[in-house]
Design a protein that fits this description.
55% helix, six-stranded parallel β-sheet, Rossmann fold, 9% strand, alpha/beta, 14 helices, Histone, subunit A
């Protein structure tokens, strides 16, 4: 067992080649892989999420993939718990760790940390559960208490409303004041972060090809299966690749329009990812895919 394993993160827009690079690095550095992808976490969402193949998953031990069912809740809190478990496993197995994926918000949460929450007694939990029967009333109460904080929370976001109500009932502090008194603490420090730079036109071409490949692999059948089993209500069913297929199934668009919509919306997501990665992290290494591989190997070989 070791206490100081090597950790690095590979980020970049969708379809930029992150997964392939992560597998190469993991094999070279004797590492496990932790996925930070908000869709790959779900079982049965395979084609839409562009998960690594079974062969790739078996070539290097992966975590953060196929953990929850599509109708189960997922949040950054859950991801951080997964990270802590993976870190413990890496130390026990004497393995390094490669963190990779497109949902860089989760990586930012690891680097910046989350604020502590007060101890929630059974009485408080029971009291809040009873209050939550009227979601709108709970939201109104919290908004009147702290409009600055609550204006960024949707009136139907029951998970976050309940979490904030629990914090208030346990601490008797408005959320803004609680988080001011309990600032976040980094969960991981001194992490090397490598960002894949890619030309937007090249990226659009890759996205288009990948979208057509998804169709060949059975995209429509997968979405039909997911809708039949889980309905359209789970949050995961509002993901890019699923909503466009559902529009096609509803007869709102043609198959060609469906493919174009998926490509367009994925390209828009990629642009947002590039902006986030460029503005939300400091001291990261930016380079094209072919150069990034050499940069990482030179440091970790």
């Amino acid at each position: 067992m070791i206490s100081d394993i090597k950790q690095l993160a590979i980020i970049g827009p969708t379809a930029s080649g992150k997964s392939d690079l992560a597998i190469k690095i993991a094999k070279k550095t004797d590492a496990y892989i932790l996925s930070i992808d908000s869709l790959s976490i779900y079982k049965e969402i395979d084609i839409v999420s562009a998960k690594p193949s079974q062969k790739e998953l078996s070539s290097v031990k992966h975590f953060g993939i196929n953990v929850l069912h599509p109708d189960e809740y997922f949040s950054v809190d859950i991801f951080i718990d997964i990270y802590k478990e993976v870190l413990s496993t890496c130390r026990q197995d004497n393995r390094n760790l490669v963190i990779v994926g497109g949902t860089s918000f989760y990586l930012k949460s690891l680097v910046q940390g989350l604020s502590d929450v007060p101890v929630i007694s059974k009485e408080v939990a029971s009291h809040v559960k009873m209050k939550m029967r009227n979601l709108q009333e709970c939201y109104n109460f919290l908004y009147n208490l702290d409009s600055v904080y609550m204006k960024n929370i949707s009136t139907n976001d029951s998970y976050r409303i309940e979490k904030i109500l629990l914090i208030y009932e346990a601490s008797k502090l408005a959320p803004t004041e609680w988080f001011k008194q309990n600032p976040p603490k980094p969960i991981i420090e001194n992490l090397d972060i490598y960002n894949i730079e890619v030309d937007r036109q090249i990226l659009r071409d890759r996205i288009s090809k990948r979208t057509h490949k998804m169709l060949e692999l059975g995209l429509i059948d997968e979405v039909c299966y997911l809708e039949q089993k889980y309905t359209r209500l789970p949050h995961a069913m509002n993901s890019i690749g699923i909503i466009e297929v559902l529009e096609y199934l509803d007869g709102k668009v043609t198959k060609q329009q469906m493919l174009e919509n998926i490509s367009t919306h994925t390209a828009q997501l990629a642009k947002r990812q590039q902006t986030f990665n460029r503005t939300q992290f400091t001291d990261i290494i930016n380079a094209p895919l072919d150069k990034l591989e050499g940069i990482i190997f030179s440091k970790y070989s």
